[in-house]
Structure formats: structure tokens, C-alpha cells
Amino acid sequence: MNHSMKRIMRSLLPIVMMGLFVHKVLAGDFGLSAGVERYSGTYTYQTTTATYALNAGLQYEEEDQFSFSFTLPLLFQNSNLVSRAGGMLLPHGSGGNSMSNSHAHNGGGMMMGANSSSPSSSYLSGLGDMLFEGNYYLAGESESAPSFALTGQIKAPTAGTSFGTGEWDYGVGISAEKQFGTISVSANTGALVLGDPAGTVYHNPFTFGASVGNTFMDGKLSAMISYLEYTRVLDGYEAPRQISLGVLSQTSSATTLSLIGSFGLSNTVPALGISLSIEVTL
């Protein structure tokens, strides 16, 4: 077993143990998930950065009360020019030296240090940042009103500086969802507090998202389209915006498969992304 795999196994053990404790003590639904993702984009640079992620996670839900999840990725990336912050991959700077011409970009405000590497055919590998997400349901849906929930997220800096900012991120928001027959419509808004990596100053953005989905085959298959936007995160750069298309299939009463494609609408996020995941309820 290589060093990276040993690290991710050691990091996942406390999560699994906590999940087993939750499963025994609480009466809700406990689940495990696994997935693979690929993202690529120029992120304002002249060359393309490719990122692969192997994700492992656990989920817990008390119906109509609250839910939470933990996710930890193992990353493979052909540069350290970008890192995950606030749920998106964003341009990442470190150190205090200005960018060389080989890393020229289309806007100002970003600084690169000697530890940054341009994209290449070889890949860096290591743990990514652990993400905790939670929902607290405020009100159930009625005939005339949607359901409402408080949302929160915490990103722990478990990644090295090659894959993360090395800082904590926090977020809080509110979401609403309404069902119209087989069609569901949801919207959310919130605010993020992003930790600043060395040499870069992130603005703390407001977020907005909306999605529309439809179910088929008595709820066993569903499709959705969603939109996500942040206010400006970096001076001189476009605000992050992306659209996603997804299909979910409930292959059994306890197993759900999902396939999601994402498309960047600004040059500060991946131009193209795809993810495949499985979730099993225990």
C-alpha cells in the first residue's frame, strides 16, 4: 500500500468510527458514499490544469429534522495553480513573487510563489480538504409554501498547500424547496468566509443557487439542472459561475447512483467537470 493510500485510510478511520457511533445512537438513516470526479480548466492561465478526485464520505439524516455529511478526497492534479475553496476549484496563489510570463493570466490581483508549479504530464497526489455539510430543517412543505432549511459547511485544511489553501473555510445559508407533482424546484443563498492562502486575498462571497428536477419511473430515476454563482472572490477576476446537469438512479431501496456534468460559465472555475458516485444507506 503506497504512502498516499495509507494517509487516506488513517484519515478515514475516525470518520467511519464516528459514523458507526451515530448509527448506533441515533434513529435516522446512515449511509456511506464513494465517487470519482474529473475537472479541467485554464482558471485564467494559458495552460490547462486537470484534477482527479476519489471521494469517500458518510451521511446521516433524521427525517424532517436535520442531516449532515463528511467528505474526504484523494486528489491527483498536474499543477498546484488551483485549490478548492468554498466548494469550488479556484485560482490559488502562494508566496510573494509575482507571476512569471509562463503563468500569465487575464486579470490582476494574483501572486505566485516559488512553490507553484505549471501544468505538466506528471501528477501530484495527496489528501484534499475534508468537507462537513449540514442542514437543519426549519419548516416542512405545505400546499402553498415550500420547505425551508438552514445550511452550513466547514472545510478543514487537511490537504497540503499543493491542493488547498491551508486555511479553514466556513459557510452558512438558507434553502427552500417546493414540489409540483414530479417536478421539484429549489433555491438557496448564503455567505462564505474563505481563508486566505499565502500571497492571495480572497473576498468572502455571497452565493446563490437554483435547480429544477423531475422524477421518472415511479421515482427510481430523476434528472436535474442547477445553477451556482458566487459574488467576486478575487479582484480583477470574473465571479465564479457554473451550470450542472445530473441524473440519479435508485438501483435498489438502499443504493443510489449519480452522474453529474458541470460547465463553467466564467474562467475562474473548471471549464468542464464530471462526477460519478454511489451512495448506500445502511
Going across the biggest sheet, name each strand in turn.
1-2-3-7-8-9-10-11-12-13-14-15
Number of helices: 1
Q: In percent, how much strand structure appears in the residues?
A: over 45%
Rounded to the nearest angstrom, the distance between the terminal CA atoms is 28 Å
| Number of DSSP strand runs | 15
CATH class: Mainly Beta
Name given to the CATH architecture: Beta Barrel
Q: Brief description of this entry?
A:
By secondary structure, the protein is mainly beta.
What distinguishing features does this structure have?
two-stranded antiparallel ribbon; single chain; twelve-stranded antiparallel β-barrel; 1 helix; about 280 residues; mainly beta; Porin
Per-chain topology:
Layout: H1 3-25, E1 29-41, E2 49-62, E3 66-77, E4 82-85, E5 88-91, E6 124-127, E7 130-139, E8 147-156, E9 169-180, E10 183-193, E11 206-216, E12 221-230, E13 241-250, E14 255-264, E15 272-281
